[in-house]
Design a protein that fits this description.
Belongs to the gamma-BBH/TMLD family. InterPro entries: AlphaKG_dependent_hydroxylases, GBBH-like, GBBH-like_N, GBBH-like_N_sf, TauD-like_sf, TauD/TfdA-like. GO terms for molecular function: gamma-butyrobetaine dioxygenase activity; iron ion binding. The chain is an alpha+beta fold. The protein folds into two domains: 293 residues, Double-stranded beta-helix, CATH 3.60.130; 106 residues, NE0471 N-terminal domain-like. Helix content is 25%, strand content 26%. The strands form seven sheets. Strands 1-10-11-21-14-23-12 form a seven-stranded mixed beta sheet. A four-stranded antiparallel beta sheet has the order 13-22-15-20. A hairpin with a 5-residue loop joins strand 8 and strand 9. The longest helix is centred in the C-terminal third of the chain and has 16 residues. The protein is elongated. 32% of the residues are buried. Zinc ion (ZN) binds next to loops.
């Protein structure tokens, strides 16, 4: 027992390739991403913060025939705004409930073919429009600028809202790392954590107290955690009559959590309370990077995995009894073909397979191709959690696994986990960004 304990303690001093979030300017890479995606260091992050970037309006005029307002900015550029959109988004107290920042104008009261009576610039450089019914609206230059309809402006605004540019990585990743306590108490540290969680997909927090309740505490830093059938938080331990393969000492192959739900949890927290003496190392791969690699190397497999919906199932009892079924694409793409989510857990992939019989073999061949790709040593990052370590990662993007471990009755490996959703995490990120950098309207 003592010798086992000593081995555990010495293991805890082993150094991993972690990258401190504080070492600003250091990209979290050893090797460069290969497929044209940007690293944190080179990504053209949209300007945040209202100060210094505002532009005055030089001229505003109605293009009556096109039913567009043309705004000329002092730098010579110009923007176009449809009359209907302007009327719909009148910011006056009759049309907007100021306390909720929500539209109170009803669509039934909106003339979607409205003209304008006249347009003028006010003394303080606002654009003022009088509508045919003599209702009048005023628009701040900054407010208009941020809602410009040009493709570039829309792209920049969407990126600022959703941070969808990702930094791809492989086994050379040095996992971004921050202090648990700092993230809890310092807005700048919390913002850096969530931005790296979004861009890189995984952030390691060090120094959490070695007692249960820390994942719940961390989720309160964001908002609230995501309740599932496994409870508000869950204990990953070797359990008799396990209701999940995670609750054994066996190897867990690379997977995302909970594809048996149609809306799987977006973010996962895992806090190490006790590590196994032997084995139990964690493995992660960048699923979005792997999907892009598959698209390039085996387009047929990519096409099959991103189009066929596969059945997943999860049955048992925990928080309460459950009988969950879903149909998910293993590689989920949006309407433009961009990979937005990986849904794959071999343990809960159902034996019910709702495919025409001739598509079954191609499906297996494709899945095998994807799994072999993600298991290549150059793609897998391995790390070993020690008590007090808390890993946070994107469960829509990363696949994670665990090496088998030796289960010792006096020294039980124990992780506590919790889920959150991306909507709540991104909400906190935007609020922190505003608190740290200020923000335009
Ligand atoms: Zn109004």
């Amino acid at each position: 027992m003592l010798s086992g304990l000593r081995r555990c303690l010495s293991a805890s001093t082993s150094r991993r390739a972690l990258w401190s979030l504080k070492s600003l300017g250091t990209p979290p890479f050893v090797s460069a991403p290969r497929f044209g995606h940007q690293t944190l260091a080179t990504a053209p992050l949209p300007a945040v913060g209202g100060g210094g970037t505002s532009l005055a309006v030089r001229r505003a005029r109605a293009l009556a025939h096109e039913r567009l307002l043309q705004v000329e900015w002092e730098d010579g550029s110009s923007s176009l705004y449809p009359f209907t959109w302007l009327r719909d988004n009148c910011q006056c107290p009759l049309c907007t409930l100021q306390s909720a920042r929500a539209r109170s104008l009803l669509l039934s009261d909106l003339d979607v073919h409205t003209g304008v009576d006249h347009v003028q610039l006010t003394e303080n450089n606002k654009v003022s429009i009088t509508w045919p019914d003599q209702h009048s609206s005023e628009y701040e230059p900054d407010w208009l600028k941020r809602r410009c309809f040009s493709p570039e402006a829309r792209r920049a605004r969407q990126e600022e809202l959703f941070l969808n540019e990702r930094t791809f990585w492989d086994s050379g990743l040095r996992i971004p790392t921050a202090s648990f306590e700092e993230v809890l108490h310092d807005d700048k540290a919390a913002l850096a954590w969530l931005q790296a969680l979004r861009r890189v997909g995984i952030v390691y927090l060090k120094g959490a107290p070695v007692e249960q309740g820390q994942v719940a505490k961390l989720s309160k830093r964001i908002g609230y955690l995501r309740l599932t059938f496994y409870g508000h938080t869950w204990q990953v331990q070797d359990k008799p009559m396990a209701n999940n393969v995670a609750y054994t000492s066996g190897k867990l192959s690379l997977h995302t959590d909970y594809p048996a739900l149609h809306h799987p949890p977006g973010v996962q927290f895992l806090h190490c309370l006790q590590q196994a003496c032997e084995g139990g190392e964690s493995e992660v791969v960048d699923g979005f990077h792997m999907a892009e690699q598959l698209r390039r190397e085996d387009p047929e497999a990519f096409s099959i995995l991103s189009s066929l919906r596969v059945d997943f199932t999860d049955t048992g009892a925990d928080y309460c009894d459950f009988c969950v079924q879903s149909k998910n694409r293993i590689i989920d793409v949006d309407s433009e073909g961009k990979v937005v989510r990986i849904n794959y857990n071999n343990a809960t992939r159902d034996s019910v397979l709702d495919l025409p019989v001739h598509k079954v073999q191609p499906f297996y061949t494709s899945l095998k191709s994807f799994v072999e790709l993600m298991n290549r040593p150059e793609n897998v990052v391995t790390y070993r959690m020690e008590p007090g370590d808390l890993v946070t990662f994107d469960n829509w993007r990363l696949l994670h696994g665990r090496r088998s471990y030796v289960s010792h009755p006096d020294y039980l490996r124990h992780l506590e986990g919790a889920y959150l959703d991306w909507d709540e995490v991104m909400s906190r990120l935007r609020i922190l960004r505003k608190a740290v950098h200020g923000d335009a309207p």
